[in-house]
Design a protein that fits this description.
eight-stranded mixed beta sheet; 16 helices; 527 residues; alpha/beta; Spore Coat Polysaccharide Biosynthesis Protein SpsA, Chain A; UDP N-Acetylglucosamine Acyltransferase, domain 1; nine-stranded mixed beta sheet; globular
């Protein structure tokens, strides 16, 4: 590897307050992220990677670092993927639980819905931003002023003001005016809300239960109207809202150039400007131009050029002769030989031009692909499935012979086919229609004595071992869907399920098999 050397955040300060057990937090993670489409059709916004970690993970670490362990997150879009990644939060030393919103309630309405979870001071953070600050200082500031609500604000260039909530404060830091996304010429100041708030529970009493209610549009103006103590904490360090593609690129550039000092990166600084994750491999004839970030288990091939200003996600492959400059490559992405990426986001087969957000789905896997499909694990998996299924058939041959004799003596069919459906793999393309492939699976006939014996022995699906040997399904995978079940599943779910083969068995069997409610089955399959 050849490394070519080339070319701030607020300094850390001692904790100003010890956060007690009573302080809890809410992460607002229910947004659809339409401005980040098509990527957010596959990946919910809280899971969008910033330096190879979901953006919400950075927020979770900020909260835990301030001593806040009890955390709630509201979910709406692709909630199963968020819950699948974070679980109960124990990996981060947190106790994380969820509030699932079938209908969005707004930022304040979402917190009001779980008001009983917050008997004391609470912190609310949007799930699509990155801050570099000491949250304990914010809480100390809030308490010292006996504030009902404190908004973390940051000075921004006037050219960007119209994208944010804007506050005007007096000499004591009290908010005297709040404008939501005003025109530049009407803005009352250059202080913008960063989507991070500290609240007292009494503030939530002003939010009508069960209604759509927003902090910026509804609650803050109401506090000002009633003369209640609303304060602003001025943050001078880095902050980024990644609600759109220009900001998504910029946060990575800022991070690579050392602006975010407090973020915990899943990589080590192995050379000046080179962040390298565990088991990242770079060919000795590849060129790395700092600053760059190389995620865990990624591979950079011979003659490839990475950087400057490049982020390569974990388990990604940059093939021979490819060039990646001022771009972000998502996890598990294959960048083909000779492909040149500049100011792009590559995620699976999707290529998004930055900062415009123009997206293109490349069907040619030799150019851009999901690295999990580009590798050799699927053929190897087929060999393993065939071998294990054949051994299982051999081991249960007496059972097949016995039930076959029962069927013959009772003049009833022994084995028949039952039709199921499974999503086509192509349904992962968000812009494409979801297609379902018919899947005829063998089973012991459910009628007569054969069916009764097979049901009693719990082996009704055993003949589907022959489907595994034929390659129709895997030994372990998601549950094949009946026609009625498929009709109840949304396109987002089908796209997610389409990335995993159907299986003879899987976690869905442990959660009740065919008798389990469909939502429990889908949740099990998400893992």
């Amino acid at each position: 590897m050849t490394t070519e050397r080339g070319g701030d955040g607020a300094a850390s300060s001692p904790a100003a307050v010890v956060v007690g057990d009573g302080v809890k937090a809410m992460i607002l993670a229910a947004g659809v992220g339409s401005r980040l489409s098509p990527i957010t059709a596959m990946v919910p916004k809280p899971l969008l990677p910033v330096a190879d970690k979901p953006v919400m993970e950075h927020t979770l670490e900020m909260l835990v670092g301030a001593g806040i362990k009890e955390i709630k997150a509201n979910l709406h879009h692709l909630p199963h993927l968020v819950e699948q990644h974070f679980g109960n939060g124990s990996r981060w030393g947190a106790r994380l639980s969820y509030s699932l919103e079938s209908t969005l309630l707004g930022t304040a309405g979402a917190v009001r819905r779980v008001q009983r979870f917050f008997p004391d001071t609470l912190v609310v953070a949007v799930g699509d931003s990155v801050w570099d600050l000491d949250l304990r200082e914010v809480i100390a500031y809030h308490r010292a002023r006996a504030a009902l609500v404190t908004i973390v604000v940051k000075p921004m260039p006037m050219s960007l003001i119209s994208r944010f909530g804007v506050v005007r404060v007096d000499g004591e830091g009290r908010v005297r005016e709040f404008q939501e996304k005003p025109p530049v010429e009407q803005a009352c100041s250059n202080l913008t809300s960063t989507g991070l708030y500290v609240l007292e529970p009494a503030a939530l009493d002003l939010v009508p239960p069960g209604e759509f209610f927003d902090f910026a549009r509804d609650l803050f103006p109401l506090l000002l109207e009633r003369g209640l103590p609303l304060y602003a904490y001025r943050h001078e360090g880095p902050w980024s809202d990644i609600g759109a593609f220009p900001e998504y690129l910029q946060v990575h550039l800022d991070l690579l150039h050392g602006a975010y000092r407090r973020l915990r990166l899943p990589a080590k600084l192995t050379a000046e400007g080179v962040y390298q994750g565990h088991h990242a491999r770079v060919h000795h004839e590849a060129v790395v131009r700092p600053p760059v970030f190389l995620g865990r288990h990624c591979r950079v091939g011979r003659g490839a050029v990475v950087g400057p200003d490049a982020v390569i996600g974990s388990h990604s492959i940059i093939a021979e002769g490819a060039r990646v400059t001022r771009s972000v490559v998502g996890a598990h992405t294959y960048v083909g030989r000779g492909l040149e990426l500049e100011e792009c986001l590559a995620y699976g087969n999707w290529l998004v031009k930055l900062p415009s957000g123009a997206g293109l789905y490349l069907e040619d896997d030799t150019l851009l692909a999901d690295a999990r499909r580009a590798g050799t694990w699927r053929p190897l998996g087929r060999v393993v499935d065939f071998t294990l299924a054949a051994l299982a058939v051999a081991g249960t041959l007496p059972l097949f012979v016995g039930l076959g004799l029962v069927g013959r003596l009772s003049r009833q069919p022994t084995i028949d086919r039952r039709w199921f459906l499974r999503p086509e793999a192509e349904s992962r393309a968000p812009a494409g229609s979801t297609r379902l492939r018919p899947l005829p699976l063998l089973q012991f006939s459910p009628q007569g004595r054969v069916g009764m014996l097979a049901e009693r022995l719990g082996v009704s699906r055993l003949p589907a071992l022959f489907n595994v040997m034929r390659g129709d399904i895997s030994l372990v995978g998601i549950k094949p869907l009946t026609e009625d079940e498929a009709a109840q599943v949304s396109d987002d779910w089908l796209r997610h399920l389409g990335s995993v083969p159907a299986g003879l068995t899987g976690l869905w069997q442990l959660h009740g098999g065919d008798r389990a409610p469909l939502d429990e089955t889908l949740a099990a399959d998400a893992y």
